[in-house]
Design a protein that fits this description.
Subcellular location: Cell membrane
GO biological process, one term: lipopolysaccharide biosynthetic process
Mean pLDDT: 81
Largest sheet: 3 strands, antiparallel
Low-confidence stretches: 511-515, 680-687, 797-875
Keywords: Cell membrane, Glycosyltransferase, Membrane, Transferase, Transmembrane, Transmembrane helix
Number of helices: 37
Membrane topology: Multi-pass membrane protein
Number of domains: 2
GO molecular function: pentosyltransferase activity
Helix content: 55-70%
Strand order of the largest sheet: 1-2-3
Structural class: mainly alpha
Amino acid sequence: MRTIHRRLVAALPVRAWILLALLYVLAVALALITNPQFGPDSRIYLAWTYWYLGHPQPEAAQLSYNYLWDNGGLKDCWSCWPDDYQHKFFTGQYAAVVGPRVLLPFLSAPFVALIGPMGMLVVPMVGYAIAVVATVMLASRLWGQRWALLSGVVLLLPVYVSRWSVVAHTEGPAFALLAAPLLLLPLAKRTTRKHLVWYVVLVAVGMLNRQFAIALPAAVGSAWLLVAIRDRAFRNVWLPFAFWGNLVGFGILIAQMVVTPIIFGGEELSLTAQFNALSQQYFQAQGLAAIAPVTWNIITSDLLRVRYDLGLMALLVMLTVAVIWRFRSELSAMAVGAFLTVSAINVIEFWPASFRYHAPIVPLLVLATVALLADLWGPVRQRPSRSTEAVPRTPANRLSENAVRKAIEAARPPRIWAPTRTGLRWIGSLPGHAWLTIGVLVVVTFAELQDRTWHYGPTSIYSLAWAYRILGYSPADASMKTYDDLHMLPFFDSGCGGPCWEYGNTWIYQHATSADPNIVYPVLSAPFVALFGYSGLLVVPVVALLVATVLITVFARRRWGAAAATLTAVMFLLTDRIAVAGLAGTADMLAIALAIGCLFTLPLDGPRSRRALAVFGVLITLALLSRSTSIALVGAVGMAWLAASWNARNPLNRWLPYAATAVGSLVGVVALGQVLPIADARYLGRAREVISEGTGGVVGSIADRIHEATQVDGTYIAADALLCAVLLITVFAAPLRAVRDPLAALAFGGGLVSALLGLLVGVPSGARQFSVVYPLFLLATVSVLVPLAGRFRPRAPDLPPVSGDPPAPAEPGPPPSPATVDPPVPDAVPAALLSADDVDLTAPTPAPADAGPNADGGLWRRSRRPGRAVAVRGT
């Protein structure tokens, strides 16, 4: 146990393990909420588990039926309970498939005996946890602790991966039996015969869990083939693992196909015969001619499901880039080999599986993707096209600071285009590969959202009608034209008839029916509606998403550096329930962009000018005139003022003018809404019903609304694991850090007002209720993660971010006295002293005289032009 504890602490600090544990609990909880825990295969595994516990076969099958016949995961399975299922579950094709998979029923038997059929979920949950731990430990060994934490987070967040951790199928143990053997392979380490023996044992155990486990030996065989070609060495370190792993794996697979029908009786299962029969039935082709249509059907069907998980889609896109760019890497070869093997077996199985067959190999896909990020962003950077895991080296988490410093100085600086034209200088705040990453994710986000979401909803009715009014249409003509444009679109054609469309020509413009103070969005959209018709409503949200992405990236860059800025932008784009507003005919994304713009004017780090205060007033007024939920921004600024007042013991602080301006803007907009219908500002909606309705009075009404919001909004939000993770960290961190961190105070205040406003309005709206202040939640989360990552190894040199020109180089000090206790640091440390095995020196190597700190952890070098600097090093 001490050895295990020591290795875990060496891989990640305790705080990071606690964070991953919280994310694991969150992922499991979300999977329990959003997915059924039993599927069609679960009925057979449960029956075999009861048989292992000593029940006769008919009784075991009957017990499985008694528990699962009305389960939600099997309600659409018309073939799950055939005639004489008590006998068929243990013979014929059922036995040929499930009989060799003894691991899950055998390991689950004690838990089923203790807690009933729900005990079938224990082994999958433990297997998923082991996969996370193994992935983190391997990533820490290869690249360091920061990338180990990132690997664990990326593995936990995709909901189409974590869902299999709480399903009574073999995917849960398969996670562990693929990730754990990776620690034994010659990935930048020296291996012994002991590693080989344990690897072969785990391969054998994996084959007893699921036949798809053959993907691991196939992946190792791909790595051996790559190294043989790359290094021109047939006998390399991968040969024993490839030979014995494939020998044992395929030997067990063949034995299972031959021996199982003999043991359990019945017909032998022929996958090729099944494939030919099904392909002939559905595609009128057999054999090789059927591979193309079957493959295309699986790809399109799986993409229709997987596209609802933006995190997984981004992972697959980045994986494609990684395996192409890092074509010399063993991890890339293993990822390709495993993916192709699983895909081939999926084609032979014929049926689309919604990424189920590929889920167990995701730990390997995550490692191959993080390897590319480590090459581009790690403190010890290297060209991806030359990167490999072949040479045994000191684990990255044991590198000394001087070794990292030497690698940074020797590395080729990233390409940064720093334009001098006003309005484009923000491009130079990040290296080129960072903007490329963000741009690719923007394209992925738009591509995924354009076909899977309704772009127009009830709020679009008011916005489009007012846009036509602004263009000069009469109320009657604008109402009729709005109806003609929208009534046949998916949302309105799916049953929203009476609630969405009322009689008369003026009902849209009446005071009580205006959904939001939506004066800004119709005004901005009117020119585009004139050009493109009702599709012009999407122009402003699309532009707002792009602007919001750039703004939040630049803001994070100024506070924490380039790496944190890129992480912030990626998290913002991959938050599905927020990014969806970028392709919706509402003012949500416009309000989000205005909220981010307000951050640049706030006195987060000190007093600001009157000009900044004036700009803040304009921005928050526009936000209040765009969406009613922007009132949360007023609460956010008010909470920041309260925190500053507590710290200074004086309410007259730098936040007071901003709080007064925000409250004044709110009062002005509310007053305007009483006389101008388009600027309706009755924010409280059904607030009076809290008092007038409910059998339990005010408390009962509030409880009913909380229950309704939990049932509707909670289920909707639970499908976005990244959003839930940000909310979880914000809920815990923001109240604790509000007094000393203005960003945390803003997030805390915005969250409180959003929750109160949602309670008073009483209409479940998913993430829309707090979408305006979600950037505050995200930045508060990043402000927690950045200091945590700063404690990880290998440590980069302490070069803090700067927002302007670097300070002038200091004059060299006098030579040290001979009586000084500490010896002077030499001007140039010999290369022998900078090896990875040396301990950290007491002082860092001094930078050149013409260099200073850069915001992304690199060096600034003075140019010949006065007042300007050029970045010559980066991380």
